[in-house]
Specification:
- The model has no long low-confidence stretch (mean pLDDT 78).
- The chain starts with a helix and ends in a 16-residue tail after the last helix.
- The protein is an all-alpha fold.
- It has a domain at 23-72.
- The chain is built from four helices and no strands.
- The chain crosses the membrane at residues 12-38, 50-72.
Length: 88
């Protein structure tokens, strides 16, 4: 496993690291805020309803991610650093 990772170009490793952040709640809610802020009137004809629907969708996406992590419970690879935002 380490030989495969070491053989990858640095750019590929950086891209994979960035992709792993796509399911983080802070990114999901930031994308929600930006999307809601810049949405046209056609998208958000009823702002309250559109906002509530978007918040529900993002919350469900995070819940699905958290359930998947708990369900699979894959251990961290050997030598991996613990997550920075989780106290040990």
């Amino acid at each position: 496993e380490f030989a495969v990772v070491d053989a990858l170009p640095e750019a590929v490793v950086v891209v994979f690291a960035a992709v792993t952040h796509l399911a983080d709640p802070w990114l999901l809610f930031a994308m929600l805020a930006v999307g809601y802020w810049f949405a046209s009137e056609g998208v958000a004809g009823s702002p309250r309803r559109a906002g509530a629907t978007a918040i529900a969708a993002v919350t469900c996406a995070y819940a699905a991610t958290a359930l998947g992590k708990a369900w699979f419970a894959a251990p961290r690879p050997p030598g991996a650093m613990p997550p920075a935002d989780v106290p040990t």
